[in-house]
C-alpha cells in the first residue's frame, strides 16, 4: 500500500485515507474506452477495457467510479477468464472480487451506464445552446470517475484509446486526433481517436454535439490549431486561434521541447466549473474567455486571451507532459502555469516593464498570506471535501511568486536550464517537489530544498530589515535581519556594487561588501523585485530611485505603503510621478 508525504520533506507516514486513495499494488498500463452518447438523453452507455499489472497478489481490484451503474465485469489473464464474483461500492470506487489471488498483467472489462448531468459542471454533463443539446466534460480534479471506471489519481498515467458513438449529424472530439469515422445502423456513427500519450484520468476530455469548427491553421512547430464552438459561432474563434499562433512558439522556445500532444483544440463551454481546463489536445474555456465576434476584437481582449492561453498551453509542459505525483504537489502544475504565463506575456513588454504584472499579483497574494487566515501551498488531500480546495488561489499565486523568487536567486539562465532538465527527465511521467529541487540544484549549484520547504509548507510573509555598517574603513557590511524562521533567498544591490544573493537562514547575517568598497550611498534589499518578502525601511532609499528598475520601484511602493514616516511619504511622492502608470498609480494609492 502506498504511503505518501503530506508536507515535504519534514513529515512522513501514511497520512492519506486508504478509503480515498487506491493501492498501487495494481497499476494501469492502458485504458480503452467506448462511449455511446446522445446529448439529448440524460444517460449514456460505456464500456472500458483496462490493461493493468498486479504487482502484488490481489483478489479484489479497486477502481474509482462514482454514480455509474455497473453491468458485466470480467477480468482476463491470458486464456483464463475471471467473471466478477462480487462488485462492491464505497461511493468513490468499486471493488471487483475475482475470487482468487492474481498477479502480473491482466485486462479488466466493464460495461456500465453513466449520467449526463444537466445542472452540475463536473464529470460528463450536458447543456442546451441555441436550442441544441451538447455534451461536455470537466474531470479535474477527481471526476473522471463519473464518466468511466478508472484509476482517478494523478500518479496513475497511461495511454488512452477513446471511441465515441454519436448520431450522424453530431461531431465528437477528444484529446487525440480523429483517425476514423464509421457509419453504423440506425443513424449512428463511431468516431475513433488516436491513442494519447500517457495521461492521468483527470486530463481526459470529450465533447459531442452539432459543433462548428474554426480552422486556425498550424502554430509553433507544426501543431494544427482549431477552435470548437456551438453551431453558428465559428467566426468568433479567430482571435483565440491568433493567440495560439503567438503563444505556442514562445513556450516551445523556452522549454526547448516541442508541443507533445499532436493537435491543439480550444473548446468553448457555455458553462464551466473553471475559467479554463488544460486537457491535452482539447483545452476547454468558458465562452466569454475564448470567443469574440470578429468586429468586436479589442487590444484588451487580445491580451486577455493570450494571457489565459499562456497559462493553459503552459500546462502542456507543466502538468501534462510532467504531472505532479500527488495532489499535494499540484503547485507543480498551477503555480508553474501562472508563473510561465506572466513570463511569456513579458515578452510583449519593454524591458522596464518586465515583472510588473507578476509583482502586482504577488502583492495581492501577500495581502492575504496571513498565518491566521491562509493555508500553505501544499496540503494533504484525503477526501472529496479537501479535494475541493486543491485549486485554492494560494497554489496559483504564491506558487508563481515562489518560482519568480527562485528565478531571481538562481539566475534566469540556470533556472531555465534546470526546468528543461526537469521536463526531460520526467517526460510523460510524474514528478515531485523533490525532483524539481534536484534538477535546479544540478543546473545552478544551489540547493533550493530548504527554501522550497519554507515557502511551500508554511504561511505568512517574511519581514526583512537592512542596515549599512560603515564603521570600518574600506570594509562596509550589509546587515540583514528577518522576523520569521526558515530559509529566505535575499538578493540585494547597492551603489557601485554589483547585485548579489545570499540565503538568510538565521535571524540575522552580515554581508561583507567587496574589499576596498567605499560606503555606498544607498542599498536595495530586493534586487529585481523578485523576492517573496516585505522589506521594512527605517529610511526610504530615495537616492536609489533613479537607479531602480520598474519591478524594484513597484516593489518599493508596496513595501512603503504601510510605513507612514516622512521618508516613506517623500519617496512615495516621487514615485507618484513615475513615467510608468502602474507604478505612479500604486504610489498615489499608497499616499491616500
CATH superfamily of the largest domain: tricorn interacting facor f3 domain
Structural domain tally? 4
Q: Please give the share of residues in helix.
A: 25-40%
Q: Mind summarizing the main beta sheet?
A: 9 strands, mixed
The CATH architecture classification of the largest domain is Sandwich
Number of strands: 27
Judging from the principal axes of the Cα atoms, what is the shape? Answer: globular
Strand content: 25-35%
Could you tell me the radius of gyration in angstroms? Answer: 27 Å
Spans of 5+ residues with little confidence (pLDDT < 50)?
Answer: 1-18
> What's the end-to-end separation, in Å?
58 Å
The chain-level structural class is alpha+beta
Please give a quick description of this structure:
The chain has 592 residues and is an alpha+beta fold. Helix content is 26%, strand content 32%.
Report what the structure shows.
By secondary structure, this protein is α+β, with helices and mostly antiparallel strands. The protein folds into 4 domains: 25-202, tricorn interacting facor f3 domain (Immunoglobulin-like, Sandwich); 211-301, Orthogonal Bundle (Neutral Protease, domain 2), CATH 1.10.390.10; 322-457, Orthogonal Bundle (Neutral Protease, domain 2); 463-591, Immunoglobulin-like (Sandwich), CATH 2.60.40. It is built from 13 helices and 27 strands. It has helices spanning 238-255, 287-290, 299-314, 331-346, 356-366, 384-387, 393-410, 412-425, 433-444, 449-457, 550-560, 566-575, 581-591, and strands at residues 26-36, 43-64, 69-77, 80-83, 86-89, 93-115, 123-129, 132-138, 160-167, 171-174, 178-184, 188-193, 206-209, 212-219, 223-229, 264-269, 276-277, 282-286, 322-324, 429-431, 463-469, 477-482, 488-494, 497-504, 508-512, 523-524, 534-536. Strands 1, 2, 3, 4, 5, 6, 9, 11 and 12 form a 9-stranded mixed sheet that branches. A 5-stranded mixed sheet has the order 14-15-16-18-17. A 4-stranded mixed sheet has the order 25-22-21-27. A hairpin with a 2-residue loop joins strand 3 (69-77) and strand 4. Helix 5 packs across helix 7 and helix 11 packs parallel to helix 13. The longest helix has 18 residues, at 238-255.
